[in-house]
Amino acid sequence: MSHLTADGTEDIARILEALRAQGADDDFLFRARTHLPRLHRLFSELYGDHPHGLERLGEVCSLAASSWATRPLELKALDAQREANPTWFESERMLGGVCYVDRYGDGLDSIRRQIPYFRELGLTYLHLMPLFESPEGNSDGGYAVSSYRRVNPALGSMEELAALAAELRLAGISLVVDFIFNHTSNEHEWARKAVAGEPGFEDFYLIFPDRTMPDAYERTTREIFPDDHPGSFVQLADGRWVWATFYHFQWDLNYANPAVFQAMAGEMLFLANQGVEILRMDAVAFIWKRLGTACESLPEAHLLLQAFNAVLRMAAPSLLFKSEAIVHPDEVAEYISPDECQLSYNPLQMALTWEALATRDARLLQQALERRHALPPETAWVNYVRSHDDIGWTFADEDAAELGIDAFGHRRFLNDFYVGRAPGTFARGVPFQENPKTGDARVAGTTASLAGVEAGDPAGEDRVVLAHALAMSTGGIPLLYLGDEVAQLNDYSYADDPDEAGDSRWVHRPHRPEKNYAERTDASTPAGRIFGRLTDLLSIRRATPEFGGNTLWPFDAHSSAVVGFVRADAAQSKVLVLANVGDHPARIDALTLSGWAPTAADLVTGDSVSLSDGLDLPAHGFRWLRVSDRS
Ligand code: GLC
């Protein structure tokens, strides 16, 4: 039994001594001296009362040392390179892509063969959706992991993944995989051992003998997958209850047990040494539970992420975390810092882009850019139009109220609009997890189907381009759902597959749309037109330093349908972005533009534009204008 001491000096000295005895090299010891005090403090806050807190901390450090000792040299070189340039991911050249290995291809080798196409697009970041061993049939698209060290044999092997990571790196592309650390599948060996009561594993999950504790917790928790099971718990065959926030086969880990932290740190370090450069931290909001709370985004969730981050700084310093927190915007922001998650999805901008397209009113989006866009240094947003998940309307009720919008009714309207229930809608989406008890629902659909291309709406293609133009110009890393660049539509065949029928998100996870790709240079097709327009924008973005970083000043275009903002680079060169979400042309008058010198350069057309007579923005149109201050 060994408790952590509040003043860590002695504990730290002892751990460093043990690391030296283990043969840790000077480089590692230097990192340990730098980061161990922080890790010790985090451990004391999380596990100060735990009888094995100190032991576990020592073991985590020892794991980190052995991981560093076996870290491939090319990854150590990458570590040095990234440490010398900690803002590398803020470059205007960054572009992300995301795909399922078994849908966009038929395994890791087929993804490898796509590298030339990824280079053509300009990807610098490739997120391969969960590819680990997971249960047969429904595995929540791989989000139920049975082993973090084995690739699903249908997709390839861990050796192939490491080789792919290396090949991608040579092509200038960072490999991103999920770190699904809130839960494992019920088939993971830890889960089997926990159910069997094997010593050391009893406390890996939250298992209760009867309904007393589950009832108590469920008084304050939210239902996440109500179509699968009510509440937060599911019953085991022997009558006991286990915590399962998502599907019944995804069991939440018990991070109050430091052995769980240690075990997951081991899996994380293993993945780091395979050459993964960014870990997408899945479901971060749920990792700590406390009775009487919603069990979401508790302070300990942050301490845990910071502790994982500190472990990496010692043993794989180039690795980054991307937070997946699809929650209230205040909470989303709390996960973002160099010490916690350097990157984060930007679910607010994503949802509000769709909100603006439905309402033809850009005010909520403009307000979000004004007050919720700024980030700490050395962090970045990942801006996306849609992901593999549903769209949830995660804007803040209080922000909406300021604009006179009733949040509850507005979310209802948006759900109806996007699932095709509102009169005059252009969208062809499908409801996801409609909860009759709360009236809550989310929306599934591909970009093209949601934007009107599927319905044959004449403005559909413009909306697809407009939504991407926003994601490409607000800063951070734009992330493409691969296939959307060639206008892939919803795939309704999921309804015929018993493993997918209950989860409408499959509607927007089609197989690689071969026909659309074949048409991508044919401007007589939607695929060709959208591909041509998006790839033009992507190459303009790459050549526009103002689009790097995150600096953004709102610009009031004096029109409720127009989003306006200015981006600037380090040399204070500026690009004015104006985007019209409305169905009618918008006029920006000369007075509104009078702060700028009268001549601007249109980055998309290459023309010089006079601002002295005002500007017309076509319906669903946008401008990227390099402007200069009036001297
Ligand atoms: C994340 C994933 C989602 C999955 C859930 C449970 O939200 O994006 O697809 O269902 O976590 O792992």
Features:
20 helices, Immunoglobulin-like, eight-stranded parallel β-barrel, globular, 3 domains, 631 residues, 25 strands, alpha/beta, TIM Barrel, binds alpha-D-glucopyranose, 35% helix, six-stranded antiparallel beta sheet
CATH second-level architecture of the largest domain: Alpha-Beta Barrel
Uncertain segments are: none
CA-atom Rg in angstroms = 25 Å
- Report the CATH C-level class of the largest domain: Alpha Beta
Query: Which ligands occur here?
Result: alpha-D-glucopyranose
Beta-strand fraction estimate: 15-25%
CATH topology of the largest domain: TIM Barrel
What name goes with the CATH superfamily of the largest domain? Glycosidases
Structural class category: alpha/beta
Largest sheet: 8 strands, parallel, barrel
Helical content stands at 25-40%
Q: Oligomerization state of this entry?
A: single chain
Please report the distance between the alpha carbons of the first and last residues. 71 Å
